[in-house]
Amino acid sequence: MTPFPDFPMLLDIHTHRLPDRPETALLSCFPDTDPLPSGVVWRSAGLHPWHLSAGTLSSQLEWLERQLADPRVLAVGETGLDKRCATPLSLQEEAFTAVVRLAERHHKPLVIHAVKATAEITALRKRLRPQCPWILHGFRGKKELAAEWLRQGCYLSFGLHYATDALQAVPLDRLLIETDDSPADIHTLYERAALLRGMPVEAFTARIAQTADFLFFNR
Question: What's the N-to-C CA distance of the chain in angstroms?
Fold first, then answer.
């Protein structure tokens, strides 16, 4: 395997499992992620549309607000809209709106779960006019959809599965890499993406890590 730098870099911006070097990953947590895995360094906190209910939304938002007071929580999410899940879309939109406002209040980037809901999320973005970055995680859309999100100022994060032409079309300063819930090794994902971009893996890794550093540490 091609060697990667020894100094800490946030390489995996969205994962549900910790790697051997926890400081290189942003662990995605929800209200039922308790206790946290031993060794976790950085994490995001969000309300997933799959696990919302009208009766618990208030307490879930209170949990999220408490999490965002912790400086180790670098992002809000994942959160978003999913038209394939059983949660009523109206409840998803209510929760998403509230979470966006929390992200703005705490000045943290938002990691978005979007399934068949581009139009709805775009409409909410226009209405809410957020200033903090939005990151579409696990992006699998075609390059035309990628271009639409890029025009709105969003970042795109690619995992194990994606459209090759979309990954090749995204500017490096808007591109991120993640493992999500896959068993993939983050280094392997960087190597594959670097090959598709026609770049040495070391240069590609350093450039994407620079974008992650800007989003999560240095805005």
Answer: 33
